[in-house]
Amino acid sequence: MFLNDAAVGFDTVNNKAVFIDQTLLPNEYKEVCTDDYNEIFDAIKLLKVRGAPAIGVFTAISLAVLMNKSKALTYETLFKELKKYCDDLILCRPTAINLKWATGEMLRIAEESTTENFRLNLTNQALKMIDDDIAICRKIGEYGAQLLKNCNSILTHCNAGRLATVKYGTALSPVYIAKENGHNIKVFADETRPLLQGARITASELCESGIDTTVICDNMASYVMKNGLVDAVLVGCDRVALNGDTANKIGTSGIAILAKYYNVPFYVCMPFSSFDKSIKTGDDIVIEMRNGDEIGDMWYENSMIPQNAKTLNPAFDVTDHSLITAFITEKGVFTPNQIKNYI
Ligand code: MRU
After folding, report:
1. What are the structural domains of the chain?
2. Is the pTM of this model over 0.85?
3. Where in the chain does DSSP place strands (E)?
4. Which atom of ligand 1 is nearest to 157's Cα?
5. Model confidence at 2, in pLDDT bands (50, 70, 90)?
């Protein structure tokens, strides 16, 4: 096994992008090593690699791998090939800003390179992005653990844990760091229909780390809040607008509304790479629409939906900034009004 506690990696000796196929969890742990463009494209599109930071870093690693194996001889052909990969990959998952951020960073490095150092510079940039992601998530965990020092249990939605980043995660990092400090926080994990990232992925990584984990159906969040079972909600994010409106996994905005009603603090854990200063509000965030088969067919032997029924499958929704207590970031904890001052 190449990956050690990480969701994605770069095997520079064999020039391969490495990822855990998350569609197989929790029943099978499989690491995939690849330098094949179609396999990379499918890994992102089919959510084998998922979670905004992991998608970004994996894209950077993949671009370096693809360019290392490219036969192009001139700067122009190298750049053209890189640009084509970037333009195609960016379409896979339009909501998470990290994909756009990662391709932008790789193109910026390429622009500053020559034919001779083109491949090496991209490789070094991908390796730097791996290290940066680990450091940023650790910082989010440290600030979050401090904030949660009197907290017994949290609720989280989807998976914003170590499998959604390189290591530690964003929303689950405070739980891991608190545990390192001897403070055990219990986690309620929403199952997160339709792709069950909470039940399959969040619960897997938390249980593996010895954290007290309870999986609930999405429609039970109100019950646990009303009965005082959770002290805070922590979620990740895919894109945050200038005013603090936040896109995250479908269902997040409903939980934020419930949290406001029941007076439970609602925190978004955000690496600044998820902050999109080019958009003023969440209305400008493109929401990825996915195939309706994921709702009625994917997990069942027989379809759970009559043939004539239509489906609607938005992968994300936008939580209004007024519902967010604070953002836990690598630079500290900020209210929605404050974040734009810390870019
Ligand atoms: O569709 P997914 O599984 O990629 O969605 C993931 C989320 O919504 C996460 O909460 C978000 O990307 C943050 S991951 C640190």
Report:
1. 8-134 (1.20.120.420), 141-342 (3.40.50.10470)
2. yes
3. 8-11, 16-20, 31-34, 153-156, 186-190, 213-216, 232-235, 239-240, 246-249, 266-269, 316-319, 326-329, 332-334
4. 10
5. confident
